[in-house]
Amino acid sequence: SQTIHQWPATLVQPVGSPLSLECTVEGTSNPNLYWYRQAAGRGLQLLFYSVGIGQISSEVPQNLSASRPQDRQFILSSKKLLLSDSGFYLCASARFGVDTEAFFGQGTRLTVV
Amino acid sequence: AQSVAQPEDQVNVAEGNPLTVKCTYSVSGNPYLFWYVQYPNRGLQFLLKYITGDNLVKGSYGFEAEFNKSQTSFHLKKPSALVSDSALYFCAVRAPSNTGKLIFGQGTTLQVKP
Fold this sequence. Notes:
The structure holds 2 protein chains of 2 kinds. Chain A is an all-beta fold.
């Protein structure tokens, strides 16, 4: 099965600072990759997903962007963080047609101060 | 458009009693349906899935779910709840295409009391 690595686990950043969260996947190739944000321990909001290198679909207009420079690497970025960007960010990987279910990383807790 | 609804923010059950966590969905075509569990400050753990075949699917930790196409539901069940089952549960749906868009419900907190 797949293993999803996310880092850092916790991050405190000032308003206006840049952001880069990285997600890497082991144990599969050519996966679909996802970034979700979870606010206040509740629902998962799909931010971006990617079906291949350089292919990014954005679900919600916002202060964030995503990139997929390699097959098993997915990066979430911001040029200038807002207070509202605080939350729990989760990366997921799914090899549909092989596993069908998605596998999740352990998440990054981002607090913007 | 795909959507998932979990109508209950919280479900409370006594240990040893059966539990049900509700989920309804909307998707074009035949859905792929999933249940996940999340413990505090952790990622999501896969419990079970429905892709095709038998409407009753069994998963991890004694959980099962029943797919009902006419009611567009996929309720999570367990015959006998444990205190350790207390967690946040998510239902998710995906249309069977390679766009791979995976949509989650808002989550239901399950509280099992001894």
